[in-house]
Amino acid sequence: MHKIKYALFYDFHTSPLHPDVGKEFDAEKITDRFVECGIDYVTFHARCNMGMAYYNTKIGTRHPTLNFDLFGELAEACHRKNIAIGAYFNGGLSRYEGVKHRDWTTIYPDGTQHHQPFWSPFSQTMCYNSPYREHLKAMVREVAENYPVSGFFFDCMSAWDCVCPHCIEKMRAEGVDFNSQTERRAFAKKTQREFAEELGETARSYDPEYLIYFNDVHFEDQKNAGSYLEFECLPCKSGGYQFMNVAPHYMRTLGKPSVHMTGRFNRWSDFGGIRNAHTLKYELFFALANGLRPNIGDHLSPDGKISETVFDRCKEVFGALHKYDRWFDDSSAEADAAIVWHNGGEIRLSKVISGTVRMLTEMNMQFDIVSPAASWDKYSLLIFPDGVRLDDNMRRKIREHVAKGGYLFVSGRSGLDENNTFPVEWGVEFESDAAFTPAYFTNAPGDDRGDLSYSFYEEACQVKPLEGSRTLYHLVAPALNREWDGLYPEYYNPPFKKSSYPFISCRGKSAYCSGKIFTGYADMAPVPVREAMKETLEHMGWSSMLKVKGAPSFVKFFAGHSKAGKMVSMLAYLPEKRGAEMETVEDELTAGNFELSLKCPGGVRRVYMAPEEKELSFRQEGEYITVTVPEFTGFGMVVFE
Question: What's 7-93+132-158+209-322's CATH class?
Answer without folding.
Answer: alpha beta
